[in-house]
Design goal:
about 45% helix; 5 helices
Length: about 120
């Protein structure tokens, strides 16, 4: 699942992952992400931190409280690259952190890492 208030970013990620055979669902804010996480039970969530309605921090907290999705890997995607921002993301339950502008090779490696067979 890709969660970002920027349609362009969602479309780019969806295109890159879709071209490699991944099925991608989208949400444009944290509130939609919570609903979609319950409905879809995604294998991985790529989520922006700064969004309207409910930001990525609040959405991650909520997702961690949903029994079916509490263990799903969540990767933060943010233009903020400070130690404090990263620490806050990891404290609320993000598993990894990517900075914008996205490096799609790095994104694909991260997706493969989290979705590799056990």
């Amino acid at each position: 699942m890709v969660v970002d208030d920027s349609e362009d970013i969602r479309e780019m990620i969806k295109f890159v992952l879709g071209a490699r055979g991944y099925r991608v669902v989208e949400a444009e804010n944290g509130q939609e992400a919570l609903k979609l996480a319950r409905a879809e039970c995604p294998a991985l969530i790529l989520m922006d931190l700064s969004m309207p309605v409910l930001d990525g921090f609040g959405a991650a907290r909520g997702i961690r409280e949903i029994t079916e999705t509490c263990a799903v890997p969540i990767v933060a995607i943010s233009a903020h690259n400070t130690i404090d921002h990263r620490a806050k993301a990891f404290a609320v339950g993000f598993n990894d952190y990517l900075t914008k502008p996205l490096n799609f090779s790095q994104l694909l490696n991260l997706v493969q890492h989290f979705l590799q067979p056990a």
